[in-house]
């Protein structure tokens, strides 16, 4: 890389970071992409990894390989921990705990979001969220070992808490994982257990709102509800999960405040996200007040006020109530890169406002049932499922992953089983066990 070209530092190799990096391939800059993981993770399919349909390799593409054609780019593994905006330096932690500094002329913060427990961080030890490959594998460990433990127990009463799965949050991720656990139980596992019937599994979806999938048109969310009912998912509306313990959860009615205990060993948390912790360091250093969930407010051109060289994109950015979805991340990452290219080339319109083009949203409910909404177009059932599949394959990074994902889907549809059910006992250093 040429040493006299402006340095662009991108923090985060998710949708926003990768789209920015790809656009900067043609720019006269040197790019460093810093990520705390080695791969670009396709988060929309994490739940399929968690339920044994896909492997972690199918949904995670090595950043070095993905961006190998960007000749002006280097990739660093490390977690950004501090920033000095006067010196234009970001400090990052290496895997071994030591730190190093990276200088930048332009910064694109694309570090995304993490699961939010809304001030109840103590829930996390019993109720993993779904944001990383680690989360998906931890959830898989919990789900698969619950069925295995149930197989060794002699009575339905003893098995019940192991075969009760509570999901907090009725947005797309909650609905998708709820449907997948039931499908796993009634299709993939149904003929493989001897002492009990996996269909005994009860999946309870707890949602504070009046209907699931509130980001979709009511007619579509009604259809999704019917499909969930048919699949055997129990939906509890108007209640929040207000306590999570090792062997039970408490739900509370939003209006009456009446509480109810559900005995379970598996609680999954999908109710809300917040900006990653490094966003706090950036907000403090730039003097901006964080917006909802710790996200960083930006101007229409995605720059932080008073800091012409700092752009914030994707889930960590706050702009006009744009949703935290992949499309916003991709388009905003691309836009920031376009503006940096224009500044470097001395071109006009280096502060053009970001205009989001909403291409629509999709959510998977169960086999042959998905929702797809794009402007006036509303698809559900089989057509929605075809549209959902097409979009996910199109945006999945890497042709190898596309082929393997299609093959895994086809094999599950034809054979019924799921091949990715291996569980590990976690990193011995941190002693993560299936049940804390
Ligand atoms: C389970 C799930 C399902 C979803 N389904 C859909 C869907 O169907 N459709 C849709 O449009 N959207 C969906 N989303 C949302 C979508 O995935 C996000 O909006 C999108 O990933 C945001 O992209 P991003 O680049 O801003 O952040 P991310 O994709 O989260 O990437 C952020 C990157 O930053 C890295 N990072 C974080 N902190 C640091 C640090 N301090 N230092 C270095 N690196 C760091 C992370 O490792 C990560 O690689 C889903 C999300 C989840 C979790």
UniProtKB/TrEMBL annotation:
User: What's one GO MF term for it?
Assistant: NADH dehydrogenase (quinone) (non-electrogenic) activity
Give coiled-coil spans as residue ranges.
none
- All copies of the FAD/NAD(P)-binding domain together span 7-333
The EC number of this protein is 1.6.5.9
Q: Which reaction does it catalyse?
A: a quinone + NADH + H(+) = a quinol + NAD(+)
Which EC class is this protein assigned?
Answer: oxidoreductase
**Is the Methyltransferase keyword given for this protein?**
no
Sorted keywords for this record are: FAD, Flavoprotein, NAD, Oxidoreductase
As for family, the record states: Belongs to the NADH dehydrogenase family.
This protein's name = NADH:ubiquinone reductase (non-electrogenic)
Q: Which organism is it from?
A: Williamsia herbipolensis
């Amino acid at each position: 890389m040429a040493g006299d070209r402006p340095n662009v530092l991108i923090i985060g190799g998710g949708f926003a970071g990768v789209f920015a990096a790809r656009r900067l391939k043609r720019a006269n800059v040197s790019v460093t992409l810093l990520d705390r993981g080695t791969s670009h993770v396709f988060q929309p399919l994490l739940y399929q990894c968690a339920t044994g349909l896909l492997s972690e390799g199918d949904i995670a593409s090595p950043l070095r390989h993905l961006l190998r054609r960007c000749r002006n780019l280097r990739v660093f593994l490390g977690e950004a921990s501090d920033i000095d905006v006067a010196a234009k330096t970001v400090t990052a932690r290496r895997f071994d705990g030591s730190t190093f500094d990276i200088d930048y002329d332009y910064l694109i913060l694309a570090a995304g979001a993490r699961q939010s427990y809304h001030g109840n961080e103590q829930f996390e030890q019993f109720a993993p969220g779904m944001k990383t490959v680690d989360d998906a594998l931890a959830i898989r460990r919990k789900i698969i070992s619950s069925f295995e433990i149930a197989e060794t127990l002699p009575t339905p009463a003893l098995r019940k808490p192991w075969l009760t799965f509570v999901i907090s949050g009725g947005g797309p991720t909650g609905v998708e994982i709820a449907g997948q656990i039931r499908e796993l139980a009634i299709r993939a596992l149904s003929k493989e257990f001897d002492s009990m019937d996996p269909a005994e599994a009860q999946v309870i979806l707890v949602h504070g709102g009046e209907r699931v999938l509130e980001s979709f048109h009511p007619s579509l969310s009604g259809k999704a509800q019917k499909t969930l009912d048919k699949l055997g998912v129990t939906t509890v509306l108007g209640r929040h999960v207000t306590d999570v313990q090792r062997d039970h959860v408490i739900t509370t009615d939003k209006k009456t405040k009446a509480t109810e205990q559900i005995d379970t060993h598996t609680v999954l948390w999908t109710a809300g996200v917040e900006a990653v912790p490094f966003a706090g360091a950036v907000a403090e250093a730039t003097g901006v007040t964080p917006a909802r969930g710790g996200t960083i407010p930006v101007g229409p051109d995605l720059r932080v006020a008073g800091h012409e060289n700092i752009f914030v994109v994707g889930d960590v950015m706050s702009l006009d109530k744009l949703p935290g979805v992949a499309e916003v991340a991709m388009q905003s990452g691309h836009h920031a890169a376009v503006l940096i290219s224009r500044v470097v080339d001395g071109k006009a319109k280096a502060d053009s406002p970001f205009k989001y083009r909403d291409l629509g949203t999709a959510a998977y409910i169960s086999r042959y049932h998905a929702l797809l909404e794009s402007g006036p177009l509303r698809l559900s059932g089989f057509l929605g499922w075809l549209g959902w599949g097409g979009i996910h394959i199109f945006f999945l990074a890497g042709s190898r992953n596309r082929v393997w994902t299609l093959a895994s889907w086809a094999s599950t549809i034809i054979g019924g089983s799921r091949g990715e059910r291996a569980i590990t006992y976690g990193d011995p250093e941190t002693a993560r066990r299936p049940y804390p």
